[in-house]
Amino acid sequence: MKHSLTPSLLALALLGAFAAGTAQAQTAVSSGAAKASTRDAAQAAAAEADVARNQAQAARDAAQQAAASKRAGAQTSDGAAHAEYQAYVADQSSVQAEQAARDATQAANQAGAAYSAAAGGTRQPDNAVYQARQAANAAQAASSQATAAATGASLAAQAATDAVNAPPAQPAPVQAAATGPVEPQVTITSSPSNSIVGDYKIDFAAMDSNGNGSISRSEAKSNATLSAEFDAVDNNHDGKLDKQELEGWM
User: pLDDT-based confidence at 33, cuts 50/70/90?
Assistant: First the structure.
């Protein structure tokens, strides 16, 4: 004897089958989106790791250039010291770039593992997407660090090259010392002459009316030329002219 489902039981069975089908469809859609997201994150992380490794190589090359400049020798002691310091800076930057490249590579590997887990269904889709994106972000940060370190190494290498090529400072010019006798400094000034063309010969005894051995300003008035040049002839400015002052007039 066959049993037939009642309408209520049939409805419940249909609803259960529909719900199961919907859940499977949602799971398929979620799994597909997770695979796409983890794949994109893994590819981005791999690209960042490539950039980081290239930057690490550039930093190594710059460090080697700085070391070669230091070994070549500088023209001055200051240049040698500066080159040695810059070579050290370049080497440290290279070490930092190498570490950043390793970090980026590790992050890329983690992103790839998350993608493989999502594609193989061995990990929950949400977890795989989260882990892949975290790894991609870490790879990008490490790539930026490698780029900054490579830039620092390049600048240090150029500074080391400039230091070894810097020429010595030019010495200050030395003023030659005088070898002969030093002539006293003479200041020459000019002034209009107060000489008046006239009679430059006098009779001292006749002009010295009071016989005191000198000629006063009033006694000199008898000779217009001497009177005009009295102040010029009066060398000691005592207001009178003696024979020594009038030596060329007698």
Answer: confident
Neighbours of 117 (CB within 10 A): 19
Paired tokens of 246? 């009038």
pTM here is 0.55
- Distance, CA of 126 to CA of 25 (rounded, Å): 16
Closest CA to 105 of 94, 113, 116, 95: 113
- Quote the tokens at residue 47: 């690209």
Residue 35: DSSP 8-state: H
Pair 60, 144: CB distance under 8 Å: no
DSSP-assigned letter for residue 75: S
Distance CA 145, CA 52 (A): 8
CA distance 156 to 82: 10
